[in-house]
From TrEMBL:
Pfam families with a match to the protein in the record: FMN_red
Top-rank taxon, per record: Bacteria
Domain (NADPH-dependent FMN reductase-like) ranges: 7-151
InterPro entries cross-referenced by the UniProt entry: Flavoprotein-like_sf, FMN_Rdtase-like_dom
Protein name stated in the entry: Multimeric flavodoxin WrbA
Amino acid sequence: MRATEQRVLILNCTLKHAPEESSCQLLAEQLLEGFTAQGAAGDIVRVVDLDIAPGVKADMGAGDAWPALRSRILGAGILVICTPTWLGHMSSVAQRVLERLDAELGTTDDEGRPILFGHVAATAVLGNEDGAHKITADLHQALNDVGFTMPAQGGTYWNGAAMEKTDYKDLDETPEPVKQANATLVANAVHLARVLAEQPYPAAAAG
């Protein structure tokens, strides 16, 4: 399935089950509002509420919720992974998403391109300590490795002050630098998705 330019899927990789409040959910909703304003409709999925089996195959068997989520990822031109920071790293839920996406390395389209070529990915990271740059770097490398294309400044984040307890969802208002980073991510992701839809990557070269 080829990417479409008007669909976005945001994966909220919080460790908190719905309906518990989540800073990642708030940021995901802010991003989705921006995408909607740009003409890219979409959805937010709280991944922890799904039974995503461990593994590196597209389908790990009975009870695995990944195949249905995979179909939604392939049907979206833009994927956003939103993760909290725990012990300086992305959440285990986000890590599992990356591990399952690894299966796409062996799947190609009719012209021999990895199936995720033409799809755009971006990231959002939250936490109360430093670590956002490292997590963004890890996510971008992994997403690019499996075939996604990253837009310029395709990562937004917020880190609270060290040794304090304030969460993003507890702020009185969204900081202006975060608003600007969100807007840039959305605009560049939508632009890139449109470019790739009109001018796909070339077919795989013969070996």
